[in-house]
Amino acid sequence: MEDQVRLNANPKGQQAEELEQYLRNMLKTQLFAVLSTVGGDQPYASLVAFATSNDLSRIYFTTSRMTRKFSNLEGNPKSSMLIDNRSNQIGDLRKAAAATALGKVKELSLDQEEDFQNIFLKKHSHFADFISSPNTAKICLLVDRYYVVSRFQNVFEFKVKP
Predict the structure, then answer these.
(1) CA-wise closest residue to 63 among 108, 93, 25
(2) Would you tell me how many other CB atoms lie within 10 Å of the CB of residue 98?
(3) Which H, E and C letters describe the chain, residue by residue?
(4) pLDDT given at position 13
(5) Per residue in 16-74, pLDDT tens?
(6) Least enclosed by CB within 10 Å: which of 3, 79, 100, 135?
(7) SUPFAM superfamilies from the entry (predicted)?
(8) What is the CATH classification number for the domain harbouring 141?
(9) Degrees, nearest 5: CA angle 28-30-31
(10) What are the backbone angles phi and psi of residue 96, rounded to the nearest 5°?
(11) Interval 69-101: pLDDT, tens
(12) Rounded to two decimals, what is the model's pTM?
């Protein structure tokens, strides 16, 4: 299958606009993502609720400071996040798509929390009590690029503009 994969590193024109719109829609409609971190020499994956900035350069999520994922992120800020649209149906062979965001994380400072809350709580209002806890870290993945895969073989790279 490797030789069937098409990587379009720099989509242009209408193709780039369609890819960006597809990515925006997936990021807007999906509630959860898989966050990948590294602790020591071991990878670790966690399910997280997320929300994105309008320019797609930041993905926000929360976690308790007592978790393995938080400890891993403190030790190594390089992370990735997988967002997908699968439904666990046979039709996923034709319709499933995933976006992998690559970047580095940082815990938000107090002066950055208002923007976070406006974006995150708009999508996840049920997390209001959790994010108000002093033990909850508000975290931002600063996205360098996305890889969008559809039909298990079409791969596109979407670089975030600085």
Answers:
(1) 108
(2) 18
(3) CHHHCEEECCCCHHHHHHHHHHHHHHHHHCCEEEEEEEECCEEEEEEEECEECCCCCEEEEEEECCCHHHHHHHHCCEEEEEEECCCCCCCHHHHCEEEEEEEEEEECCHHHHHHHHHHHHHHCHHHHHHHCCCCEEEEEEEEEEEEEEECCCEEEEEECCC
(4) 62
(5) 677 788 899 999 999 999 999 999 889 999 999 999 999 999 999 999 999 999 999 99
(6) 3
(7) FMN-binding split barrel (SSF50475)
(8) 2.30.110.10
(9) 105
(10) -65, 140
(11) 999 999 999 999 999 888 776 765 667 789 999
(12) 0.86
Q: Which domain holds residue 110?
A: 2-159
Kindly state the tokens that stand for 150. Answer: 């559809």
- Count of alpha carbons within 13 angstroms of residue 149, beta-carbon side: 13
State which amino acid sits at residue 113: E
The identity of residue 139, as a single letter, is I
- Of 39, 60, 82, the C-alpha closest to 127 is 60
